[in-house]
Each structure stands twice: as structure tokens, then as C-alpha cells.
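Lab notebook, design round three. We kept the backbone fixed and only want residue identities now. Task for the bench partner: fill in a sequence for the structure below.
Input C-alpha cells:
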């Protein structure tokens, strides 16, 4: 379940009280330094109840007048506190939310492309979009929280896809005989599967450093459901693998978990991936039995052709080649539909 508006306001009140700050005092400070605004939105960890004694105080300032051009945050220092404020216009906010609403029924493939390409098309960057939706105004309103369901769905499909990529890389690494690299892929897969479940439950936050703490809070709030138990069960073998213990293959466990998370959050879809080759790739013979793949970066491969189109998560003829190609950006992975 999403944090209620009352809970969010309670988090903000507790944070400001702990810092000896008041909404009125902050509004006077920000207005004097950055100009009057329609909203001063307190964002990030304080609104989620995750802030600590060293957390910065981040604001998004929404003004009624039009704005244009690149944006840079203003850094403010008031006593022991570091504040940051970045400004956008109401017109920019409305345009961004119109684009977000247009993705409400997007396919997973469309959602992932939109999420990854958002910053190229919007001055109001993706992380600020999330912060605006979750932001609490100094006038104690939450003016953009109604957009949370659309935001959560976009974030969910991005995290599900990133988890799918990481499970594929884990499978390829183990098939290629990698012992250490596979553990990094397992850690990433576990974190993004947690975030996908959290986003499915309308708990959305861009910063990956909070994934595990958010998951711990979610488990305490929702109880140990079968899915939560399965996710948590994988933390032990991953931790042991990080410590260098032989825990056996991890890929089959993660593929099962990926399928289970899709069963809950995947809207009736199963995990899928397609491979697309980057434009302009040139493959040349390097040595007997080895080729050089030239593009934006260079990869050295065997002579088995790289797969293209929809693929599975196991059963590759040359797993190390596909893994190398993905690492250097020679191939792109997207959901099948």
C-alpha cells in the first residue's frame, strides 16, 4: 500500500521538527533566495520517512511564469543545513504529467523505452518527476500525488526489465564459468525485483540506495507474504556467495523468482527479452576462432553469430559472447512486447 497523505505529512513534520525548522521559515528563506513560487515541494527521503541526521533538504520550486533552457539546482546553506532547490514552471510540470498520463496503457516495451528516454525529451528530468509526485508542499498539500499510479506503473516496468536483464546476465555468467561477476548480477537482480514489487504497491523512489530499507519497511508493514518470503529467502545464498562460499548455481533460483514476481506484478505477462544489434556494427576476423566486433566500443568474440530477436534465459551456444556484447553496448535488450 502507498504511504497515505497523512503519513507523508507526519514524516515531514517529524523531520522538520528534528532539524529545528518550520514551513513558514523555510518558505521565507526560499522565497528570499530563489523568488516567490506556486509551490515549494520538499522531496526525497524526508517525505518517505527515510531521512537521517545527514540528509540534505531538497526542494523543487514550481513557478507560474514560463521557463526555458537548462536547469541547475541552487545550493543553500543555512546554519548546519544544506538545502537544494531547483525550479520548473507550471507549464513544464503540466506537459510532463500529460506525457506520463499518455503512458498509462503502454506495453512493457513502450514503458521501458519511455523511462530510459525520458531525460532526452524533458528538461524536467525523470528523478525530478518522481520527486514532484511524492513531494510535500510547504503549505501542507501534496499537489501531484494523484499521478502516483501512472508513475508507479512506469517505474515498475523499468525495474522488472532491469531485473530481467540482470537475471539473463547471471545465467550467461554462470554458463560461461564466471564465479565472481555472477554475484554482482544476482545482487542487482534481487534489488530491482524488490523495487518492482514496491512500485507495484505504489512505493516509488528513484534512489537505489534506499531499495533495501524500503523493502524492510514494506515487509514490516505488509507481513511476510509468500512472495516476500521467496524474495527474502534468496538473500542468504547471495550473501554467502558474496563472502566467497560455494552456493551452487544461482540463475535457476532467480529465474523462478523473476517468474513469481511477474505473476504478481506483471499484469498477466511472463518475463521476455529481445535482442537488437546496435547500428553500425562491423565484425572482423581477429585470430583463428576469434572475431573482433567494432562499434562504439570493441568486443572480442568467438565465431558463433550473436542471437537477434526474442530469446530465452538459458541454452545459449556462446554465452560469454552475448555477455561481452551486452557489456559494451553492442546489443540492446528490451521486453518482447
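Proposed sequence:
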Amino acid at each position: 500500500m502507498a504511504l497515505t497523505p497523512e503519513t507523508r505529512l507526519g514524516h515531514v513534520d517529524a523531520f522538520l521538527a528534528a532539524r529545528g525548522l518550520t514551513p513558514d521559515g523555510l518558505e521565507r528563506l526560499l522565497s528570499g533566495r530563489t523568488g516567490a513560487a506556486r509551490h515549494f515541494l520538499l522531496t526525497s527521503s524526508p517525505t518517505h520517512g527515510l531521512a537521517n541526521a545527514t540528509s540534505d533538504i531538497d526542494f523543487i520550486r514550481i513557478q507560474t511564469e514560463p521557463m526555458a533552457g537548462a536547469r541547475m539546482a541552487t545550493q543553500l546553506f543555512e546554519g548546519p543545513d544544506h538545502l537544494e532547490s531547483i525550479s520548473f514552471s507550471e507549464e513544464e510540470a503540466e506537459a510532463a504529467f500529460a506525457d506520463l498520463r499518455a503512458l498509462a496503457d503502454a506495453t512493457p516495451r513502450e514503458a521501458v523505452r519511455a523511462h530510459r528516454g525520458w531525460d532526452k525529451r524533458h528538461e524536467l528530468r525523470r528523478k525530478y518527476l518522481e520527486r514532484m509526485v511524492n513531494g510535500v508542499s510547504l503549505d501542507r498539500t501534496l499537489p501531484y500525488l494523484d499521478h502516483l499510479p501512472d508513475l508507479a506503473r512506469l517505474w515498475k516496468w523499468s525495474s522488472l526489465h532491469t531485473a530481467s536483464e540482470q537475471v539473463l546476465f547471471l545465467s550467461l555468467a554462470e554458463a560461461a564459468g564466471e564465479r565472481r561477476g555472477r554475484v554482482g548480477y544476482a545482487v542487482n537482480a534481487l534489488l530491482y525485483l524488490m523495487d518492482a514489487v514496491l512500485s507495484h504497491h505504489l512505493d516509488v523512489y528513484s534512489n537505489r540506495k534506499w531499495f533495501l530499507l524500503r523493502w524492510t519497511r514494506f515487509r514490516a508493514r505488509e507481513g511476510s507474504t509468500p512472495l516476500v518470503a521467496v524474495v527474502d529467502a534468496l538473500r542468504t545464498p547471495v550473501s554467502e556467495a558474496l563472502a566467497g562460499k560455494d552456493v551452487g548455481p544461482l540463475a535457476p533460483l532467480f529465474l523462478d523468482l523473476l517468474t513469481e514476481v511477474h505473476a504478481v506484478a506483471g499484469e498477466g505477462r511472463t518475463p521476455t527479452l529481445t535482442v537488437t544489434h546496435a547500428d553500425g556494427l562491423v565484425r572482423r576476423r581477429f585470430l583463428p576462432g576469434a572475431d573482433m566486433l567494432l562499434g562504439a566500443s570493441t568486443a572480442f568474440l568467438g565465431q558463433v553469430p550473436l542471437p537477434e530477436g526474442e530469446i530465452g534465459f538459458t541454452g545459449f551456444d556462446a554465452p560469454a559472447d552475448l555477455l561481452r556484447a551486452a557489456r559494451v553496448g553492442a546489443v540492446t535488450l528490451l521486453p518482447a512486447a
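Keep this in mind before ordering anything: DSSP finds 13 helices and eleven strands in the chain.
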